[in-house]
Amino acid sequence: MRSSEQTYLDLCETILKDGTKKGDRTGTGTYSLFGYQMRFNLQEGFPLLTTKKVPFRLIASELLWFIKGDTNIRYLLENNNNIWNEWAFENWVNSEDYNGPDMTDFGLRSQKDPEFQQVYQEQMEIFKKKVLTDDEFSDKYGDLGAVYGKQWRDWKTSAGQSIDQLKQVIHSLKNNPHSRRHIVSAWNPEDVPSMALPPCHTLFQFYVADGRLSCQLYQRSGDVFLGVPFNIASYALLTSLIAHECGLETGEFILTLGDAHIYSNHVEQVKKQLSRETRKLPQLIINRDKESIFDFELSDFDIQGYQPHPSIKAPIAV
């Protein structure tokens, strides 16, 4: 079995070597391949990349946001997490309530025009402050629609009932660990049009063998440089938390990607990362006094022994 981080770096190399050049929804352009699987042995260490610094607290706060069933970015902003801002901001600047400077194609324009970048940042700060302080504004523009947390915790049925998929799968793991139905889906075709961003990580399944819990995620679309490192660590954390609650050890995290792509404006950053040597993976420390995953807070997690190379910045495609 390839080491956890090398498995990811192999994917980067494969896309640069064999990826197909494609246009995309954001107008940025990608190098893409379809169908790729990576396996991460969670006994080897927590799979937080070391060839560039990956911000664990952002990953953990986002996961807690999902677990809570929350879909409003206020909780994220309260925890200094800005990774979903652009999608909520887009809803505001495209609305009749917005009367500021023109923000058309703000994602691409902010990368190319330093003067516009300053204007964009000013408007983003106004937006964030409104989400944090104005309840009515937050309800209207801070909410992203029926995204991940909604589907995990409050899937609406045709009969008007609600399914808490996450609670159900934990109950199933405890009472029928060898079932082949330990599945949570975030892809709800009826709700996709109302989502700020249709789910990229669409479905995950748990598997118990020899007292260890493994998880496989199917991800329809993977931004390999910026997004996938987050996804790897997020689902490794989720697997670790559920294993803790169910009295199991961790096994593997398996990531199966549909469209795995590197954006054209991330290529040089990827090459820089590939030039670096991997380091020893860190260890995840969980507050063992908490029993349920629904009780955890950000202060209940710690990463020990994490000594990565410096972070590598790259623009996000919106």
Plain-language structure description:
The protein is an alpha+beta fold and 318 residues long. The protein has 2 domains: 4-70 and 146-304, Thymidylate Synthase, Chain A; 85-143, no CATH class. The protein has helices at residues 4-18, 56-67, 74-78, 85-93, 106-112, 114-133, 135-142, 148-153, 165-175, 227-246, 267-274, and strands at residues 20-22, 30-41, 155-156, 162-163, 183-185, 201-209, 212-223, 249-263, 283-286, 301-304. Helix 2 (56-67) crosses helix 10. The mean pLDDT is 95.
Strand content: 15-25%
Return residue spans where pLDDT drops below 50 for at least 5 consecutive residues: none
Inertia-based shape: globular
Query: What is the total domain count?
Result: 2
Per the CATH scheme, the topology name of the largest domain is Thymidylate Synthase, Chain A
Portion of residues in helices? 25-40%
- Helix-strand makeup class: alpha+beta
Give the ordered list of helices and strands.
HEEHHHHHHHEEHEEEHEHEE
Computed Rg: 20 Å
CATH C-level category of the largest domain: Alpha Beta
Tell how many strands the DSSP assignment holds: 10
**CATH architecture identity of the largest domain:** 2-Layer Sandwich
Q: CATH superfamily of the largest domain, please? A: Thymidylate synthase/dCMP hydroxymethylase domain
Number of helices: 11
Biggest pleated-sheet summary? 6 strands, mixed
| Mean pLDDT over the full residue set | 95
